[in-house]
Amino acid sequence: MKKVFVWLSFFAVLSFLLSASPVRAQEYPAFTLAWSEYPSWSTFGVLHEAGVINGALGKVGPVEEKWGVDIVLEEMDYDSTIQLYASGQADAVCITNMDILSPSLSLNSVAVLPTSTSFGADALIVSDKIKDFNDLKKVNVAGLDLSVSSYTFDANLELQGENPDQYRFVNMDPATAALQFQQGALDAIVVWNPFVLDTLEKRSDSRVMFDSTSIPGEIIDMVVVSQASLAKPQGKAFASAVIDAFYELNKMLADPAEGDDTLIALGEKFSNLGLQSMRKVVKQTKFYSTPEEALQLLEGEQLKATMKKVVAYCVKREIVEQAPMVTFGTQQQGNLLFDSSYIKNVMATPKE
Amino acid sequence: MIGPSLKPVPRIMIMAASVMIIILGYTYLAHKQHIKNPKDKTIPTWVQLKEGVEKIFEKNKRSGERWIVVDAQASARRLFLGLLWGIAGAVAVGLAIGCFPVMEAVFAPSLAILAKLPPTAALALFFVMLGTGTSMFVGIIVVGILPVLAQSIYLAIKDVPRELIDKATTLGASRPELVWNVIVFHVLPQIINAIRLQIGPALVYLIAAEYATAHIGFGYRLRLQARLVNMDVVYPYLAILIIFGFLMDGVLKYAMNRLCRWYEYEGR
Asked: B49 CA to chain A: closest CA distance, Å?
């Protein structure tokens, strides 16, 4: 009798599991997007809060429903998102055009959506003591090594005809560098927002010596999807859904009625700078807020020159051992492909 | 322990097998990851790891220095200075609060609080107080290990059998003699054991601080290479840390055997 009961319960569990699986199959395929707090990437967190997409596994918002995919959002710090993506645990990642080069050597990647470009968001801030380049040579310049900070520093020096090797760039986490500078322990730092605005506000004798406005469109924040994930069923729909959602948020930002609230929501976790400063932040981190602007970048000639320069920098600084093959258009080869077809696909798909 | 001890041969074989499980487990994981993506760098194969090790030990083309040499020098200096001050301070404070009730009242509460503080979460505090030079790394290690170490010494002293102290007093020992000849020697093995257990945490604090602010050292290299997804460099560095930990353990065990011949314990 006991045995019969055991068998019955075994079958009950089994049939429950079997009946559960077809339900799961009917659900939308899930894709993971790893993101970290940054003005144009926090958009995905805000979209989740606004209910446009639902970042939880097994739950979908209207945009996800439209494209038939389930976008799963994973928020963590920047370094971790890169590792999650490189290990294949995330299908897509929010990353800069420079930091993607190293992961792309092991995981062929497609840049499907440029979200913003640094236009003053990366800056060299100095104190009163530093009057010119000769003064700068004598002090330690603190910033995150082998990152967009060191790139901004080197590129600007070269623009001025200076040799970056004659300067002492020392590695320091941007938050730490900003704190040290504000306490007067340092005289020159290269950091990004919110630390740029925060530091200028908190130390009165500080000024920007140069920033990324002199290298417009060279530091690009974007969404990258692995080629393998795009090849999965509904992979292309996933890329389209992410793009669609991003432009939904830009519409919210442009809307006079809800624009300010959206901006505040964007800034909430990113910094505690308030509305006025957030207006400045989005000026210094220029959004590619329409598909047209994004296409202009992706299909323009400047991007090719930019990527050549960035790759050369990364090879020189040994960020990558060999130059990754960067391609443009829709060809399916190369380590990193800038592909505008997904944005076009979203533009061509009628609104529901 | 319960049950008869194992004979040497089966014992060594079982120990080797348990290490093999770790190695095989890693190999399997790397294999699985490379089926998914043949070029994967997040869980490198042994061949990839070999290349990473070469990168660590060869002369760097740009700087002309070997990563491992410069990093080990920088980190070892910070670690040993931190350990030195931490241990010296802990012994002094531990003995003081263990032996003298006044000291106990002064230090014990603040030690109890500090022992619960995770220094890695209060990095900013250390930057403000100590800047970002060597003293900051030393400071964070000291604050990390001193309270716990002092507390274990304090507890060990409380465990010194009353009759030992009574006997020494009856035989006419002075205060200093009592502290040095009876108490210090009685708790010395526990002190060494406590130090052994604090090597790991000291490393954690050092690496965390180097993660945030260092342009040389183990934590710097680990963070940078992890961001570039060069795990073929990261894992050998971790292996070096493990080996270093074993070496330190061995040295302290040896010191214990030499210094505390009267003390019997199982791991001897």
From this structure: 15
Q: Give the whole-angstrom CA distance, residue B159 versus residue B212.
A: 41
Higher pLDDT among residues B265 and A307, named by residue: A307
B39 close to A (CB below 8 A): yes
- Helix ranges, B116-230 (H): 123-130, 134-158, 162-170, 175-177, 185-212, 218-227
- Alpha carbons A49 and A47: distance in angstroms, whole number: 5
Enumerate the residues of chain A whose CB falls inside 8 A of the CB of residue B62: 318
* pLDDT tens-place string over residues B31-75: 999 998 888 888 999 999 999 999 999 987 777 789 999 999 999
Residue with tokens 């999965």: A232
- What average pLDDT does the structure give for chain B? 90
Smallest Cα–Cα separation from A314: which of A302, A326, A303? A326
ipTM of the complex: 0.75
What is the spatial distance between Cα B171 and Cα A298, in angstroms, rounded to a whole number?
90
What is this structure's pTM?
0.82
Rounded mean pLDDT of chain A? 89
Residues of A with CB under 8 A from a CB of B: 79, 82-83, 86-88, 99, 102-103, 105-107, 145-147, 170-173, 175-177, 179-180, 183, 185, 228, 318-320
Instruction: Say yes or no: B127 contacts chain A, CB-CB below 8 A.
Output: yes
Q: What is the dihedral of CA A196, A149, B135, A167, to 10 degrees?
A: -110
Cα angle B118, B119, B123; round to 5: 135
Distance between B38 CA and the closest CA of chain A, angstroms: 8
> Residue A337 above 80 pLDDT?
yes
Residue contacts between A and B (CB atoms, under 8 Å): 82
Rg (CA), chain B: 23
